[in-house]
């Protein structure tokens, strides 16, 4: 298998802050061709920043200090602006949480998608309208011909997200980055969109990097999972192993604080005490140690290295044992 | 009937919008008992938040009655309503906009006592300190401002503000949907603990059935402004009856990695426009079981089990089933 | 409170133009205070030969005007008039604008339509023309000038306050106040106004500058209070000798320019310092 995305040792720092305010701190991540990888974390874990860094879309306050990001074998950090523009859309494209803010409100759906096709030379003025309809039908936009002529505000949240996906797929990217693609949608619509993404993966063979906070979505979609905490991957592995036998106490905690299916409703939910750390506040040791029920002296001193055990990989001194 | 705290009958609310009249709530009737958690479930735009706002007397209904402890709230003038307000309080969804950014935490929690003229300065301070302790806020937080706190901490401040008047009913409008899962568990536990200590009833509005499953004694599912199913906890989860309830339960992402999306049924079809006059069952365009009658007649809520009602033509009334069995 | 205040002052004091503005205002205030101390006889007294250029006579640093009045005395006493009129007209206009804007935004419906209709009537009339009419209708005096200026200055503020209220009203902390049982007045005073205060302060501070300009304009046209010497009056008197003795209008003109500039700098500085977007969470 070939890696479409290979991130090594990525560190990104908040500009203008005191030293070492890293929002991404030594991140390794690979996505193989055609694979669905979920990047899971809570708000502030750095998961969206990781997504932005792949297409060099980071906000100006954040800059990358170390590491490499290979997209289709080429380092995006060494690309000039023109190459980068070419890569965005054809190698990788991104779908955001709120389609209303990522679609241009003053252009019809058709114009926006056609524009994308024209910029990348995937269609001519003559062939573009037909290709747009094809794309909208690909994402199963109901009544595609009529919807193509409409503006984003005429569409419901679910349909807008379909339009956004069609736009992202216009240049047949090999990697689709989906940043909380269904968080703003209702569950029944969420299910439609997620299923659409899986179908498209099967039909077009693209890889998906799914960024989410929802372990339910992860369980339904992902082949592999990487759990992010304080700008690092703290555990990764195949979805079944990771969710059924989590090794890192943070993964374990995230799973056990979900309301369980058949538990006694009078039972208290398991809490993870405290709050995730602010960037730069962890100076040494394991970033999860202050909230961890299993931590001891060594955890606050030495940051654990990535350990592999079978298919599981985790950064922990005192992991839960495999069953 | 004496333990019914809040009784809602035939509630109706229409908003006029630039796109036309929008019926947000229609024919909603329900009753909440003292000390219980009554959940309203449904997707965005189903009217659950409007019901919550009507109960908190933030929105005036067009028709119907709301009786709190025997007082019909819809018949009162704003002045007459004011003293009754302390019995119904509200916890909001957005922990960032729900607290006055220019007031200290102490002032925010103390405000309800000042408004209702309860206690002198010293007594109020003591009550605020006690309440802060109860919701897990450190005493030194009192002199700080909301923007210095995280989402979860802010939600605790909002809870303290709602509960300091010792209300009979608290409307919780999506109280954890803006929070991270690890913080969500903390807030849900807190709400349960407080209910146990204070005996407050909750009208718990949420789109998240997993959260509702954990919290609610009774569940009502709303679809396009109407109740489609109401049932006690056990009966609802053992036997969700309305096809929409079943679809919602099935669509809920389940963190079991062996339960993959490819194998699940997905609800297709489009919702009817809420602006149009509609005939028949609103769910039929997405319902896998719809048949001829559904396009013609809007099904009323009918009992499907003791205390369990669903608005679907396919519901067999337990009595009629017995009759046919006997015949 | 102290943490918020400290960060506000730190932000403001880092803004060099704003600090320069504050210094300029302090200078102008100093001039206003110094006037009656150094020139107890007042600015009207004919003290020397008319049309003395600045520095021509050591007794009159800034020279004299057409009638031989000391320009320095006029400048210092004028600072007093300009500041007083600027501030009192602004306070009055802010009060009118806030009450009308708050009522329109809070109550909505016909109250809003009525008050906004009124606001529009005032706004569509050119402010200076309206001020001239008001002052001319009464006798030109400090009171009528302040009334005229505040009467033409409140509409933008009313619109601003109304817009702020409309934006704040649907926010959940305001709803929480309603659920708590707050009366309308309490809701407006404790929840809404404090959160609308920042833009009110910023635009009021800028309004002082406009008021000073309006007063200068009125006095220039001879509609000033005949009993007080303002900068506008000096300019008005000096315009006849503009070509030969340009310093007579230039000196008070620069005074108007610098005070308006100073107030604008401070206003902008306040705006930047208050702006929650740049405040770190």
Radius of gyration of CA atoms of chain C, rounded to a whole number: 22 Å
CATH fold-level assignment of chain C? MetI-like fold
Roughly how much helix do the residues of chain C carry, as a percent range? Answer: over 70%
**Largest pleated sheet of chain C:** none
Give the number of helices of chain B: 11
Task: Give the oligomer, counting copies of the same chain as homo and different chains as hetero.
Answer: heterotrimer
* Class per helix and strand makeup of chain C: mainly alpha
Span between termini of chain B: 35 Å
Largest interface: A-B, 45 and 43 residues
Question: Would you write up a description of this structure?
Answer:
The complex is a heterotrimer of chains A (323), B (327) and C (281). With 323 residues, chain A is α/β, with parallel strands linked by helices. Chain A has helices spanning 47-54, 81-90, 99-102, 109-119, 128-138, 144-148, 157-169, 187-204, 215-221, 239-244, 249-256, 297-301; strands spanning 3-14, 22-32, 36-40, 62-71, 74-75, 92-95, 175-179, 207-212, 224-229, 232-238, 307-309, 312-314. In chain A, strands 6-7-8-3-9-10-12-11 form an eight-stranded mixed β-sheet, with helices on both faces. The mean pLDDT of chain A is 89. Chain B has eleven helices and twelve strands. Chain B has helices at residues 48-55, 78-84, 105-115, 121-134, 151-163, 181-198, 209-215, 233-238, 243-251, 292-296, 318-326; strands at 4-17, 20-33, 37-41, 63-68, 71-72, 88-91, 169-173, 201-206, 218-223, 226-232, 302-305, 308-310. The model of chain B is unreliable at 320-327 (pLDDT under 50). In chain C, 74% of the residues lie in helices and 0% in strands. Chain C has one domain (2-274): MetI-like (MetI-like fold). The model of chain C is unreliable at 276-281 (pLDDT under 50). Chain C is mostly helical and 281 residues long. The chains are: A alpha/beta (323), B alpha/beta (327), C mainly alpha (281). Chains in contact: A-B, B-C. Chain A binds chain B through residues 42-43, 142, 156, 186-192, 194-195, 198, 213-221, 239-240, 242-244, 253-255, 257-259, 261, 263, 265, 268-273, 275-276, and chain B through 43-44, 150, 152, 180-186, 188-189, 192, 207, 209-211, 213-215, 233, 247-248, 251-262, 264, 266-268, 270-271, 286.
